[in-house]
Design goal:
This protein has 236 residues and is of the alpha/beta class. It has nine helices and nine strands. Pyridoxal 5'-phosphate (PLP)-binding protein, which is involved in PLP homeostasis.
């Protein structure tokens, strides 16, 4: 897909604004900007946008639908052969899609059950980096493993030789403030690291609440709308 007229300038401006928000949030709590990665959530947006963001220096991209992602990753590779890019799966993942997702994803950020962890392990042909998705309010219907049971799932993942536990991911629930949610997550992660010191990633914070997440230890913010604009209709 060809680059839309004016899109490069639009994305460059948005990226600059997002980076400045991250920088201000880090300064406010005495953290370095290099402590927080920017993960561009490119779901529903074309590969041409990913190519522009790559030109602008981004290297981490997130998708939430296997079919769309596999197509987009291939298109991006054609648009920018050899460009550095790491792809994350940030959507709900069915166990029967594990093998397909591992065909394009460099990390799966939504492991929320032992059964999904086992499915990924069976599908893996090489070690896979994963994050455990945490439900802070316990509403697993919205995705995530109950925060109170996080150690059990983390232990299960860590004991699976095909999976590398890199940390946790969450979405702040509507039932509490972002500050409360991210504070609870940080407390849980602090305890988790006693047994899993390599679980250093805290993927928390999106376009509307990234400042609160950074204030509570987030090491990766997932930004879609503030970077790319209002969501497009999903690809068929």
């Amino acid at each position: 897909m060809a680059e839309a007229p004016g899109r490069r300038e639009e994305l460059a401006q948005a990226l600059g604004e997002v980076r400045e928000r991250i920088a201000r949030a880090c300064r406010a709590v005495g953290r370095g900007e290099d402590e927080v990665a920017l993960l561009a959530v490119t779901k529903t947006w074309p590969a041409s946008d990913v190519a522009i963001l790559s030109d602008l220096g981004l290297t981490e991209f997130a998708e939430n639908r296997d079919q769309e992602a596999s197509r987009k990753v291939a298109e991006f590779a054609e648009l920018r052969p050899g460009a550095a890019a790491e792809w994350r799966m940030v959507g709900s993942l069915q166990r029967n899609k594990a093998r397909s997702v591992l065909g394009w994803a460099d990390r799966v950020d939504t492991v929320d059950s032992t059964r999904l962890a086992d499915a990924l392990a069976r599908a893996a042909t090489e070690p896979v980096d994963v994050l455990v998705q945490v439900s802070i309010d316990g509403d697993v219907a919205r995705g995530g493993h109950p925060i109170g049971d996080l150690p059990r799932l983390a232990d299960h993942v860590a004991l699976t030789s095909e999976l590398f536990l890199r940390g946790v991911m969450t979405v702040a629930p509507l039932s509490m403030s972002p500050q409360q949610a991210f504070a609870a997550l940080y407390e849980a992660v602090t305890r988790l690291r006693d047994d899993h010191p390599d679980a250093t990633v805290i993927s928390a914070g999106m376009s509307g609440d990234l400042e609160d997440a950074i204030a509570h230890g987030s090491t990766c913010v997932r930004v879609g709308t503030a970077l790319l604009g209002s969501r497009r209709l999903a690809s068929p």
